[in-house]
Amino acid sequence: MAVILYYLGLSALCTHEMDAVMRTEWRLLYVLRTLPDQQAYPLFVALHLPLFYLFFWLSHHSNALIRDRFRLAVAAFLVVHAGLHLRLSGDEAYRFDGLFSNGLIWLSALCGFGYLVVTLLKHRENRP
Question: Positive or negative CA dihedral for 64, 70, 73, 79?
Fold first, then answer.
């Protein structure tokens, strides 16, 4: 169950990031919002290449400790990410409106939270 929640949350995040390009999310980010769109857009997209690479590589790392801790960190980030969107929702540059955009954000957070709960419960069961 935990792995399903993890990958569904990660998939929702990746899909949200595609939506973020359409919604000019870089206008909310401290460094990128100071740049003109013609510079900020390709930089915003390009920064996702190493980020996604790290997400996929560390999610499948051969060292179980690294893999499991990374997945916990991602799950926690999915929850924090939704909180950041909630905090930024009053900003005039915020364009994530409607069921689709918000659904992706909250689905990823719900999956992240679920992953954390399931993993914690599994850890408690395995303790002597």
Answer: negative
